[in-house]
Amino acid sequence: YTLAIDKVDQTMEDLRELYANGEEISEALAPGNVGQGVDEKEPDERFAEL
Fold first, then answer.
1. % of the chain beyond a pLDDT of 70
2. Tell me: the pLDDT tens digits for 27-38?
3. Which among 27, 46, 45 is positioned nearest to 37, based on CA atoms?
4. Interatomic CA distance for residues 38 and 28, integer angstroms
5. From residue 1, how far is each of 4, 10, 22, 39 by CA, in Å?
6. Which stretches does the entry tag as region Disordered (predicted)?
7. What's the N-to-C CA distance of the chain in angstroms?
8. Structural domain boundaries enclosing 45
9. pLDDT band per the 50, 70, 90 thresholds, residue 2
10. Domain count, the chain
């Protein structure tokens, strides 16, 4: 069973992307990040404008 080099390269690139996505998810779910980055005031202000 042989794999073409371009197939191996594509598989490695896919794995790198999946790993990066996993890291991003892990960082977002880390205990210190819970609730950060959410600005609840802005949606309320936009809703009031409607």
1. 78
2. 888 877 655 565
3. 27
4. 12
5. 10, 17, 30, 54
6. 30-50
7. 63
8. 5-49
9. low
10. 1
